[in-house]
């Protein structure tokens, strides 16, 4: 069993057995038929993944690593807020007629600030600090900008990364205000594990631990039967995921820079309805 499977299944079991339902509260998300999309949730889940041991990818349901990385690069590398720059359609429901999702995600990472080290955006500041001052305890990014929330078509779920170097190892903490376990947990964990690997490689470091902190960790009402099915499955071992060692510039990475070997997974037998 992979570590990602172990934590995912444990979280889902805990949510279903001990979680709190919001069926007596008004909720924003809706199913496509207009019905309110209620959830059962746990508060304050913290998961740790050691990338020196294995890459965290689910096997109880198939994961599409390269699509996940493409979205990550859309945000962190291209710093885009327009779906025309994205290969997948995961953001189509949130885009306006011009394809923009507003001042969200990649837009926030592309804004330049007057850092003590000079004028640059958050991504370039982290990369510069990792190279020049790796002992810094101030390597934090944040895209939950209250000043711009009114101009975001969707407020960020995964909103903050903290990077910290211990010896020759780069570790990271991903803070997430809200997590749809079935559709997004495996996706986000893969993405930020990949980001940690890329940042480590271009900084001459080893990727270490990814710590994932989730405030509102939930399962939607219509997803419960699918999650119950996943809980009955026997996971496969984690595959081997490697990064092209020749890339030394973060902006030169592509989704093709990652190689996956020995990935086995179960297919979903029921289509997943997405709440918006």
Biggest pleated sheet: 6 strands, mixed
* Percent range for β-strand residues: 25-35%
SSE class:
alpha+beta
Number of helices: 6
Separation of the first and last Cα atoms: 32 Å
Say how many strands there are: 10
Low-confidence stretches: none
Helix fraction by DSSP (H/I, runs of at least 4): 25-40%
Compute the gyration radius: what is it?
A: 19 Å
Q: Would you tell me the overall average pLDDT? A: 97
Instruction: Note the run of SSEs as H and E.
Output: HEEHHEEHEEEHEHEE
Instruction: Give the overall shape, derived from the CA principal axes.
Output: globular
Spatial strand arrangement across the major sheet = 1-2-8-7-6-5
Description:
The chain is of the alpha+beta class. It is 27% helix and 25% strand. It has 6 helices and 10 strands; from the N terminus they run H-E-E-H-H-E-E-H-E-E-E-H-E-H-E-E. It has helices at residues 3-18, 65-76, 106-110, 122-132, 181-202, 224-231, and strands at residues 20-21, 39-50, 112-115, 118-121, 140-142, 158-166, 169-180, 206-220, 240-243, 258-261. The strands form 3 sheets. It has a 6-stranded mixed β-sheet with strand order 1-2-8-7-6-5, covered by helices on one side. A two-stranded antiparallel ribbon has the order 3-4. Helix 1 (3-18) crosses helix 6 (224-231) and helix 2 packs across helix 5. The chain starts with a helix and ends in a 15-residue tail after the last strand.
